[in-house]
Specification:
The complex is a heterodimer of chains A (about 600) and B (about 280). Helix content of chain A is about 55%, strand content about 10%. With about 600 residues, chain A is of the alpha/beta class. Chain A folds into three domains: about 220 residues, no CATH class; about 160 residues, 3-Layer(aba) Sandwich (Rossmann fold); about 70 residues, no CATH class. The chains are: A alpha/beta (about 600), B mainly alpha (about 280).
Chain lengths: ~600, ~280
């Protein structure tokens, strides 16, 4: 594997080296210029995709960062005589600072929907343009950059610009590849699919979005710096026009914005075809034809060329003689782990330390009091059943323990540390994991990656290879191993529930919160799940589970807590609580309790 | 500090120009809010309408309102056809943006092919006339655009609010699957709405021809400010689009009079950013 990677790395480096020598071959300057434009678009589109493609926050303001870079280089080089190569890092830094400034405000918004982000960034780029136009940076007259001395990297001017474009493009692609295969990339893909879940699974979403935004803008800024020398004359209307933001979106979407190579493929196709029609009327018809091709491509392959080609290739490879193994497997996965039968008497000792301490916790949504001062201790290694009628606050309690909602009042302490005010990902790091009542897997990650993400970002906090090994362990445990390369869409409800469980377990939780994992399962599946939960507890995990299925509650729980209308209503041994007439009355009404 | 007359004049011109913003925003807001399709092509379509009105007026001396009435059914048909394609390919909110961008570019190329990239002005005897209210001039065409925008916005609002079809459309926008389960024929309604939005683009185009200077590249000039109007007015709310249009128009115009015309674009976007950060409940 690594050998293969090393060989392909050498191959790519060789190809870049050969391309770098192209200007020496004595071809007409047209080729330098044509290839430069292709590199330029590849770099821009790829940089855009690092935030917008990977994390799904579509930016229409890429021109702001690109333009900030262009004008930084122009100002430094023209007015202050700074050498070009020195201005490029400055251009990147200015663009990144702009992105961090915007991101720090915008990413804090609770209700930031995708289209609002798109428009906000568009608005920012118009404002940046107006500021530059009306201040001495441009002043409305434009900036002449053709006189900026270029470093003599190549015998000809156009050769030097070509080389800079090539290096920028290669660097951008390497960065995109590295990000896509890193922890950051995995986090960004998860944010794309379901940001709330990503945060609860331990992904520091705010920081990751900011980092991706800054990186994306920095590349655009540096590309802008190089481009300032290519165009020779900067105007605000050209720089901040609609061309850059729209073309980068189109190129990325055409090629496949979620794939590191997708934007490059889309950019190469569009840039090359635009260049084919260069002059006057022809250019106009060319644009029309490109637009038409684009419409057709988007309608036919909406997810982009690279991902759909990959899928075709995978299907093609799978077709060979032997029938696929999964085809004749029963729909219900069987846990393959050795499940020992453990008596429910193996509960914690009465003097076990308190793992989770909830003091007077309250939560209100506007005028609605979902929790009114709940006080509850959970001992280490205990299984606590949480029951109560619908709307009694069970799921809200889970949501505030995981930090999904901030507390309105009171405190929550985990292992002696107050976690009530921490962001969700910090709480996940400290060993809290949950399942969702309605499974919420990351739709575009494979089953294996779904679980590996939890292992990588949860309290287990593992590096990539270790997280995959850990994920496989839990897929074995829940019997999903055979489906590890399937997308969650390909699972049935039972398997999706077990995927939820595997995801929670792979995080290596000290405290596991299960939200109705058994609902919707048939009796045999319930038995399996009960066995699994016992096995988990045997490994020392504290478990709080919300459940309506009374058989499971009584069989599993060491103690039961009953919530009613946001308050703790009863707490104690399963038998005693279930016989309490008050508890029976809130479930079945007064008449039955008598 | 500019004089009161100048401020009053710029306020009136701003509100009237805002009416035109609202008129262009109307179709965009309805299709985005109720069909979940972001129709970038709306601008291009409006300009196509403007050029057609210009051509009919200059070669056949057809008055602008007859020309507008003539192109509305054509545009309605175009909207229906476009929506049929969108439904067939299951176009989503995001892909609609990309596909309609492509449509815009094609229309822009076609405009440039037929009418060249030169700026054109539709000269009519009534185009330059103004009413005089005290010291303030009220340009007639802008006023007409505003009145038509208000009438269309109110009619659309009333239609959505009070008729069965309108309620069904809003329900379908909230939750398509449930709406279908309740027997709403969403496909038919969406065709209807899509056609209406395109016809509104035709109306907006007629006024663009009468009020402003035409050039194919102008398609993109309206994009930023109209999107701001659509967002501030709330997606799918016709009256909101009109009011937001007038507010933005007035704010821009006042800023031009008090500071400098060059800073006008900042106004609408600053308003948008401010609102998005503030996030009031009605947004």
């Amino acid at each position: 594997m690594t050998g293969q990677r090393a060989i392909s790395g050498v191959g790519i480096a060789g190809a870049v080296g050969l391309l770098a020598l192209l200007p020496l071959a004595g071809l007409p300057a047209f080729y330098d210029s044509f290839l430069y434009i292709v590199f330029y678009w590849i770099s821009l589109a790829t940089s855009w995709a690092i935030l917008s493609g990977f994390a799904g926050y579509f930016s229409f303001g890429h021109a702001a960062f690109f333009g900030a870079g262009m004008y930084t280089t122009a100002t430094l080089a023209v007015k202050f005589g700074v050498p070009l190569l020195v201005t490029l890092p400055a251009a990147a830094a200015v663009a990144a600072a702009l992105a961090v400034g915007i991101g720090a405000v915008v990413f804090r918004l609770k209700r930031l929907r995708g289209e609002l982000f798109a428009l906000l960034t568009l608005a920012v780029s118009f404002i940046v343009a107006t500021i530059i136009l009306n201040t001495p940076i441009d002043g409305g007259a434009g900036v002449l950059t053709s006189s900026v001395p270029l470093p003599r990297l190549m015998p000809s001017q156009s050769g030097t610009i070509y080389l800079l474009g090539l290096l920028m493009c290669a660097g951008t692609l390497v960065l995109a590849y590295v990000v896509a295969h890193s922890r950051l990339g995995l986090g960004l893909f998860a944010i794309h699919d379901d940001e709330d879940v990503a945060e609860v699974k331990g992904v520091p979403t705010f920081r990751y979005k900011l980092a991706a935004f800054a990186l994306s803008a920095a590349i655009a800024g540096a590309v802008g710096g190089v481009h300032a020398t290519y165009v020779g004359f900067l105007t605000v209307s050209e720089t901040f026009g609609i061309t850059v933001p729209l073309y980068v979106v189109l190129m990325s979407v055409l090629g496949g914005a979620r794939h590191w190579l997708g934007p490059a493929v889309g950019a190469a196709i569009i840039a090359a075809s635009l260049y084919t029609f260069t002059s006057g009327d022809q250019a106009m018809i060319g644009r029309g034809i490109v637009a038409l091709v684009l419409i057709i491509a988007i309608l036919i392959v909406p997810e982009g060329i690279v991902p759909s080609a990959q899928r075709q290739l995978a299907r093609w490879r799978l077709r060979p003689p032997s029938p696929v193994v999964t085809a004749d497997q029963p729909a219900i996965a069987r846990p393959t782990a050795e499940v020992k039968t453990i008596r429910s008497t193996s509960g914690p000792r009465q003097d076990a330390p308190v793992a989770l301490e909830i003091r007077d916790a309250s939560k209100s949504f506007g005028g609605l009091q979902a929790l009114r001062g709940v006080t509850l201790d959970v001992r280490q290694g205990e299984i606590l059943g949480l029951v109560g009628p619908n709307g009694s606050g069970k799921t809200t309690l889970i949501n505030i323990i995981t930090g999904h909602f901030p507390l309105s009042g009171g405190s929550i302490t985990l292992g002696g540390v107050s976690i009530g005010m921490l962001p969700a990902h910090e709480i996940a790091r400290r060993g809290v994991a949950r399942t969702y009542q309605i499974p919420r897997p990351f739709a575009h990650l494979t089953v294996l990656d779904n679980v590996a993400l939890a292992a990588a970002f949860g309290s287990a906090n593992l590096v990539r290879t270790a997280s995959i090994a850990e994920a496989r362990r839990w897929l074995d445990f829940t019997g999903l191993r055979a489906k590890e390369h399937v997308l969650p869409d390909g699972l049935n409800l039972h398997e999706r529930k077990f995927l939820e469980l595997a995801r929670a377990l792979a995080a290596g939780p000290k405290l596991l919160l299960l939200d109705e994992v058994l609902s919707g399962l048939n009796p045999a599946e319930v038995d399996q799940a009960i066995a699994l939960i016992r096995e988990v507890r045997a490994q020392g995990t504290t478990i709080v589970f919300v459940e309506h299925l009374m058989r499971a509650v009584v069989e599993l729980s060491d103690r039961i807590a009953v919530l009613n209308e946001g308050s703790l209503f009863a707490l104690g041994e399963p038998g005693a609580v279930m016989r309490d007439p008050r508890v029976v009355s809130i479930y079945l009404g007064k008449a039955h309790a008598a | 500090m500019p004089s009161v007359t100048l401020l009053g004049q710029s306020l009136v011109s701003g509100v009237l120009l805002g009416g035109l913003y609202g008129l262009v925003a109307l179709g965009l807001s309805l299709s985005w809010g109720l069909l979940r399709l972001v129709n970038l092509g709306h601008f291009a379509l409006a300009f196509l309408g403007a050029y057609l009105v210009y051509q009919l007026g200059t070669t056949w001396h057809l008055p602008a309102w007859w020309a507008a009435l003539l192109i509305m059914p054509l545009f309605f048909a175009f909207g229906v056809l476009q929506h049929a394609v969108f439904l067939y390919f299951r176009v989503t909110e995001l892909t609609s943006l990309l596909v309609t961008f492509g449509i815009s570019v094609i229309i822009e190329s076609a405009l440039q092919w037929v009418w060249t990239a030169d700026f054109r002005r539709y000269e009519t005897e009534y185009a330059g006339t103004s009413l005089k209210l005290g010291p303030i001039y009220v340009p007639v065409m802008e006023l007409a655009a505003c009145v038509v925008a208000a009438a269309l916005a109110w009619a659309s609002w009333a239609w959505l609010r009070w008729t069965y079809v309108g309620k069904a459309l809003r329900a379908a926008a909230e939750d398509p699957d449930i709406a279908i389960a309740f027997g709403i024929n969403r496909r038919f309604l969406s065709f209807l709405l899509s056609g209406i939005c395109a016809a509104y683009a035709g109306v907006a185009g007629a006024f663009i021809a009468l009020i402003s200077t035409l050039a194919p590249s102008q398609i993109w000039a309206w994009l930023g400010v109209v999107f701001v109007v659509v967002i501030i007015g709330r997606l799918g709310n016709p009256l909101g689009a009109l009011i937001a249009g007038m507010l933005i128009g007035a704010a821009e115009s006042l800023a031009m009079a008090t500071f400098s015309p060059a800073w006008a674009p900042v106004v609408s976007f600053s308003v948008l950013i401010g609102l998005l950060l503030w996030q009031p409940d009605w947004l």
